[in-house]
Amino acid sequence: MLNRSALLLRHKAPAVQWINDADPSPGGSPVTAEEVNRDRIVYLVSDEVSESPEEVRRWLKANWRNLFESELEAWYADPSLWPKRTLKRFDEWFEVECHSVMIDTLAGPILDDEAL
């Protein structure tokens, strides 16, 4: 088991709509919520964050901007395409999931790809 919790963001309809509206390539096929949420970013957070919904919310209030920008950049790296970012919009666009148990099923060390 790892001494971390996993935090995931599920894109809601307004986020999916933005992805489709902001697409700079004309004629692109719209993506669905199912496609957007198929392979999500997993954010590792401390075990303490997952202790209660109140702790998750406290952590989110301190970190929502970085999460929001990470999710936007995953779709479009050009910040000129990004909407105004507020905590209210973050709440409207994402459902937060926090999972407290993470088990490493591999025997080898966990490596940072960027450090290699």
Descriptive notes:
This protein is an alpha+beta fold. It has one domain. It contains four helices and three strands; from the N terminus they run βααβααβ. A three-stranded antiparallel sheet has the order 2-1-3. It is globular. The model has no long low-confidence stretch (mean pLDDT 92).
Distinct helical segment count: 4
Strand segment count:
3
Structural class: alpha+beta
What level of helicity do the residues show?
Answer: 25-40%
Mean pLDDT: 92
In whole angstroms, how far apart are the ends? 24 Å
Write the layout of secondary structure elements.
Layout: E1 5-11, H1 13-22, H2 33-36, E2 42-45, H3 53-75, H4 87-93, E3 94-99
Antiparallel strand pairs: 1-2, 1-3
Sum up the structure in keywords.
3-stranded antiparallel beta sheet, alpha+beta, 4 helices, 116 residues
Short overview:
The chain contains four helices and three strands; from the N terminus they run βααβααβ. It is of the alpha+beta class and 116 residues long.
